[in-house]
Amino acid sequence: MRNTDYFKNKKITVIGLARSGLACANLLYDLGADVYATDYQDHASIRKNILELKLQKTKVELGRHSPGFVRGKDTIVISPGVPKDAPPIIWAKQFNIPIISEIELAWFLCPATIIAVTGSSGKTTVTTLIGRVLEASGRNVFICGNIGTPFSAKVNKISAEDFVCLEISSFQLEWTRNFKPKISVMLNFSRNHLDRHKDMQEYLDAKKRIFLNQDKDDFLILNERDPLLKDLAKETKAKCLYFTESDEFNPNQAAVVAVSGIFDIDKSVCLKVFKEFKGLEHRLEYVTQINNIKFINDSKATLAESTAWAIKNIPSPVILIAGGKDKGSDYASILEIAAKRIKEVVLIGEAKEKIKKAFGNALPIEEATTLEEAVCKAYHKASPGDCVLLSPMCSSFDMFLDYQDRGNCFKKAVFALTENKI
Fold first, then answer.
1. Percentage helix, strand, coil, to 5, in the chain?
2. pLDDT (tens digit, 9 = 90+) per residue, 176-229?
3. Residue 391 has what pLDDT?
4. What is the CATH number assigned to the segment(s) 285-420?
5. Burial of 292 by CB count in 10 Å (0-12 exposed, 13-18 middle, 19+ buried)?
């Protein structure tokens, strides 16, 4: 690591104790900081997390935020799930205390070449594929960030010769100050996260922070077919490269090829990686088949655009399970493709009524109170040759810890159908 003495003896408060907050608090403790950690939630999952905290000196509060955990601190580190109007952020501004994100903290300590990927969809796939292409070319690579493994959990193992492939969300970018990746990639931009951002401009402004500090020695890779993103070339000092979908490569693959070209990696390496790539868990993941009915877990699809893509890539008739916490998606946007492929819809979660209203009478709809009930209903509606698809178009936080928890719950419910011989 670099700058390892910077945080020594400094008073630092970490807001939020999910994965990234936990990793960040432990990293700061190892660097000799006086660590405080606070989370407004107090439930079994959070209490399980704090068992992994280095608690000898770390002060912890759960179930509330108090001004004492903010006042007098040198820095406040914000986890991505913490909204901008949360009390600790308001207090930090009142007390003139610097606020940074967990990503900013880890970047400050990281000596390696960083490739940062953002966009409304496709981030996890592209980040993973870039990492695998670099590995296939002989580089030592760390794949982390919003992808599931916090950057701050890996930074103490990263050397100057290594490469970091970093998936970054708009939430993580909001509180970056000096963050400066060598390569930044903006895949696409569509309606998303309007439960967090006040409008689309604020959402875009957060995304643009990925290249805010880049200079002429850095690279910004943009989607040539997205006019809004293409025009961002005017707003950066970095060298701009473009990718576009073709007969040979889908948009995600094209973005990976653009990055690999910067490192003079032969296209044949990319093709081999693409051919061997089996996909990601919770993204169009085949679960099993029961009585010739397929079950597909697409829990990571938290946008209408992602669900539309999933439907396009499933050749059989679909019973769709959707719903969750609304993010401001335009649910009606899937109706054109849905009319051709979807037989029925089973809705769950807080967004049920909004989705129902958006669909109108275009599709047969039934509701369920739990995901287990939805799986059972979808199975009984399906015929041999059909596919039961969980592709929610919503975030998971109304009913689950995260999209992984939701996907695992779906898989468990599917296998229960076999065990119970329903």
1. 40, 20, 40
2. 999 999 999 999 887 555 566 567 788 889 899 999 999 999 999 999 998 888
3. 98
4. 3.90.190.20
5. exposed
Q: Which part of the chain has CATH 3.40.1190.10? A: 104-276
Q: Are 86 and 15 spatial neighbours (Cβ–Cβ below 8 Å)? A: yes
Report pLDDT for 36.
95
Task: Pull the structure tokens for residue 256.
Answer: 């990976």
pLDDT classification of 402: cutoffs 50, 70, 90: confident
| CA geometry: angle 369, 370, 372, nearest 5 deg | 140
- Which part of the chain has CATH 3.40.50.720? 11-97
Mean pLDDT in residue range 104-108:
98
First-to-last C-alpha distance (Å) of the chain: 55
Report the topology of domain 104-276.
UDP-N-acetylmuramoyl-L-alanine:D-glutamate ligase (3.40.1190)
Strands 293-297 and 285-290, how do they pair?
A: antiparallel
Task: Let me know if domain 11-97 sits in CATH 3.40.50.720.
Answer: yes
Check if the beta carbon of residue 144 is closer than 8 Å to that of residue 127.
no
Cβ neighbours for 179, distance < 8 A, ≥ 6 positions apart: 103, 104, 107, 116, 173, 209, 210, 212, 213
The distance of Cα 149 from the centroid of its chain, to the nearest Å, equals 11
Residue 378 · residue 271 · CB < 8 Å: no
Instruction: Count Cβ atoms below 10 Å from residue 333 Cβ, excluding itself.
Output: 18
The pair of structure tokens assigned to 314 is: 């499933």
pLDDT at site 189: 84
